[in-house]
Amino acid sequence: VETIGDAYMVASGLPKRNGNRHAVDISMMALDILSFMGSFELRHLPGLPVWIRIGIHSGPCAAGVVGIKMPRYCLFGDTVNTASRMESTGLPLRIHVSGSTINILKRTDCQFQYEVRGETYLKGRGTEITYWLTGTEDKKYNLPTPPSV
């Protein structure tokens, strides 16, 4: 896990590769987090919803500890930038997923449910078809209803 501003960046398959399992693990984690957010309340602000955006992308990435006085774990590569763009171009209470991750999820035994979002412009990459992750066939997630646009 790396923090970038107010965002958390999570990687799977580092430093030990795990095949296509990384896409499954991150997607399940995203569904679990979003499901939890539907019932989460800040103690000092009851009734005020907390809206999060989640973005997922799969590809090559490097990681390591940087710094001597204040070492921290860092992630590097275009995949990291694209995952960040997936989050920033997403919508509240939604899991925005790239085509590369959907292609990997299709090749696994897990039956993920998703909807085509459509064409999305991603800075540095151009326009791509992206998706909303909405659940799995074998587990019922109590996902919060996204706000209307």
TrEMBL record:
The Guanylate cyclase domain, residue ranges: 1-87
Keyword Transcription among UniProt keywords: no
Molecular function per GO: adenylate cyclase activity; GTP binding; guanylate cyclase activity; peptide receptor activity
Main location: membrane
Keywords: Cell membrane, Glycoprotein, GTP-binding, Lyase, Membrane, Nucleotide-binding, Receptor, Transmembrane, Transmembrane helix
Compartmental location: Cell membrane
Pfam families: Guanylate_cyc
GO cellular component: plasma membrane
One GO biological process term: intracellular signal transduction
InterPro entries linked to this entry: A/G_cyclase (IPR001054), A/G_cyclase_CS (IPR018297), Cyclic_nucleotide_synthase (IPR050401), Nucleotide_cyclase (IPR029787)
Highest rank taxon of the organism: Eukaryota
Family according to the record: Belongs to the adenylyl cyclase class-4/guanylyl cyclase family.
Listed name of the protein: Heat-stable enterotoxin receptor-like
Organism: Lepidothrix coronata (blue-crowned manakin)
